[in-house]
Specification:
About 45% of the residues lie in helices and about 20% in strands. It has about 250 residues and is an alpha+beta fold. It has two domains: about 70 residues, Winged helix-like DNA-binding domain superfamily/Winged helix DNA-binding domain (Arc Repressor Mutant, subunit A, Orthogonal Bundle), CATH 1.10.10; about 170 residues, Beta-Lactamase (2-Layer Sandwich), CATH 3.30.450.40.
């Protein structure tokens, strides 16, 4: 399975933030005794205010620490190579998603495409933010959900064809796209920086939005769902998802 190249179009937005944050970590790592903010900015070629914002965000996550005016690697970096890394990443992700769920007032989902299949790995829902009822297996209905279309749009042409050959399109509601060529065209034309929407394609009464979450070789997405009566909130919710994707990508990548 190959991932579609994303080129320079993702140099801005959450992808750009993640890459700059990783560069900050790499640069600090080259200074075992710590590095002043001014030197960090000069070596990175970034404005001081940008470096400060990135460093402070990394400090909040435990990846950096400020000691006597020098930035050094934080305690969270030390455990990344240990066996509990996967558990640490999941705990951080669940915490982030719970915060986002409460901010949105809607359920939030993190999903991946791995070994040819869609998996919804983390769902953050609550009484005031119920999750979508999985009335048909999500793995078999990627063509109809915002999550599925967001993941498929990140694959290359052959990867999408392979998936649809194993999980043919099927009508779930009157709004479901059942023409495979039309679906393939939409996936091919989906911009990497534009949220994918599902307006009652998977289930009547529900609307969803999803944005890509790409870290290393991971093909993933962050999504939310709302009752159709709140469809007017969907665009704003999608924009907030895109803004919050960067910290999630960072937690997965380092």
């Amino acid at each position: 399975m190959s991932v579609r190249g994303q080129g320079a179009s993702v140099s801005a937005g959450p992808f750009g933030v993640m890459r700059r944050a990783l560069r900050v970590l790499e640069t600090v790592d080259r200074h075992p005794g710590g590095v002043p903010e001014a030197v960090l900015a000069r070596e990175l070629g970034l404005p001081g205010v940008v470096v400060r914002e990135l460093a402070e965000a990394l400090e909040l996550e435990g990846y950096l620490a400020l000691e006597d005016g020098l930035w050094v690697l934080g305690g969270a970096v030390a455990v990344l190579g240990q066996q509990n890394r996967e558990q640490l990443v999941r705990v951080r992700m669940e915490h982030r998603l719970a915060e986002l769920r409460d901010e949105l007032g809607a359920a939030v989902y993190f999903s991946r495409y791995h070994d040819g299949e869609l998996t919804v790995e983390v769902v953050s829902a609550a009484e005031h933010a119920p999750a979508v009822r999985e009335w048909v297996d999500f793995r078999a209905t990627a063509h109809a959900s915002a999550i599925g279309k967001c993941l498929l749009s990140q694959l290359d042409h052959d990867g999408r064809r392979d998936h649809l050959s194993r999980h043919p399109v099927a009508r779930l509601t009157a709004r479901t796209i059942t023409d495979q060529q039309q679906l393939m065209h939409r996936l091919e034309c989906q911009p990497a920086t534009v949220p994918v929407l599902d307006i009652q394609e998977y289930a009547l009464g529900t609307v969803c939005a999803a944005v890509p979450v790409t870290a290393g070789s991971t093909v993933g997405c962050l999504a939310t769902s709302l009752p159709v009566g709140q469809v007017h909130r969907l665009r704003a919710a999608a924009e907030l998802l895109a803004e919050r994707a960067a910290p999630l990508m960072l937690a997965m990548a380092v």
